[in-house]
Amino acid sequence: MAGATGDADGLRRRLGVFDAIVIGLGSMIGAGVFAALAPAARAAGSGLLIGLAVAAVVAYCNATSSARLAARHPASGGTYVYGRERLGPFWGYLAGWCFVVGKTASCAAMALTVGAYVWPGQTHAVAVAAVVALTAVNCLGVQKSAWLTRAAVAVVLAVLAAVVTVCLTDGGAQASRLAPGPDATVGGVLQAAGLLFFAFAGYARIATLGEEVRDPARTIPRAVPLALGITLIVYAAVGVAVLSVLGPARLADAAAPLADAVRAAGAPGLVPVVRVGAAVAALGSLLALLLGVSRTTLAMARDRHLPRSLAVVHPRFAVPHRAELAVGAIAALVAATGDVRGAIGFSSFGVLLYYAIANAAALTLAPAEGRPVRAVPVLGLAGCLVLAFTLPLPSVLSGAAVALIGAAAYRLRRGRTPRG
After folding, report:
1. Which of the chain's ends, N or C, has fewer CB atoms near its CB within 10 Å?
2. H-type alpha helices, 176-215
3. Which helix (H) or strand (E) holds 322?
4. HSE on the CB side for 97, CA within 13 Å?
């Protein structure tokens, strides 16, 4: 029965504002803060914090547009639904395609990060095990997933607070020993912003859970900016702290930036704690990613853009268990064969296209529908496209190729579908 407890397909509205914020934080405060700083510093040099600010501005625009759209269209699927309803079936499909493909790569990247920190010699095996275990957790119900995400966020925030405290306490002593980093360029700052955007994109998980959030018209617009604001504060604090100890040059070459920072700050005993925190962060991010991708898969399967069998909701646990299992299987396969750096770049391109469509959809909202100030979706749309095409060339080429394949598949399917 549709209503406060669910809809005809069996999803139930169980999540409040706090749970929605925690799921967003679990997605954003994940492996990005432990891994993305180094490649971003390599691209931006001394302009790293400027790149972080640019990524945050674009993310804010995307979050605002997504929140207004989610309040108007509180259904599973996120921008897949918004694009379909506001721009037409093709744009909704393209958004869903970019999200599912790009975020499945993100799942693999998060799993590989877990493996790298937990057991470096068996990275791929640990990554596959992590995907399998968390897919099983998600199949047992969204409330269990929210509880585990809450625990992961608490652990990670505690670890990051310790890192910031140690680094800033020692930062003044280290400042005189810092090696100057490469000069910042506009292209480098934009590329760093595109890479750092990967770490901000988790607020989509709140919108894609639209059918499982209580009072979505109020909950989602509150949860999205709060989750994003908390994440920005955390990332800025960590960025300043790590730069104060390592400087841009050493940060750019760091394999494990936060571990290197606490070691350089004179607290080597904190390194194992940082490793555990990184693994927990990546697990929390992976958990929320699997949750969000499966919901978009559910929505696309309902509309027959993906196999209809994936639209089934489990009668007991009220989750799209077939979609969960399909996404988990593909993510495990990529985790068994891929690498973190390539997965992050590929994912960033797809997700930026996804949010470009979200901003375009937000432009069609009328004032009575809660349209944001027009400059917000305009800046978000332009920012997404600029950041997408200033990513490393392999990421741009592979991402564009996959988007074109998806578009061609849509046109082919439409051509074969009988009318009426």
Report:
1. C
2. 186-200, 204-208
3. helix 321-337
4. 21
Q: Could you tell me if 297 and 326 are in contact, meaning their C-beta atoms sit under 8 angstroms apart?
A: yes
What's the CA gap between 273 and 168, in Å, rounded?
18
Q: Report pLDDT digits (tens) over 194-206.
A: 988 877 876 666 7
Which tops the pLDDT comparison, 27 or 273?
Answer: 273
Over the stretch 263-312, which tens digit does the pLDDT of each residue have? 999 899 999 999 888 888 888 778 878 888 888 888 888 888 888 899 99
CB contact at 8 A, 203 and 28: yes
Closest Cα to residue 112, out of 396, 290, 332, 326? 332
Task: Report pTM.
Answer: 0.81
Q: Both tokens of residue 166?
A: 């140690």
Position 364: which residue type?
T
Which residue do the tokens 């929320």 mark?
A: 288
Report the Cα 312 to chain-centroid distance in Å.
Answer: 25
Q: Can you give the three-state secondary structure of 301-312, one letter per residue?
A: HHCCCCCHHHHC
Distance CA 229, CA 187 (A): 26
Residue 172: C-alpha distances to residues 142, 152, 235 (Å): 45, 31, 20
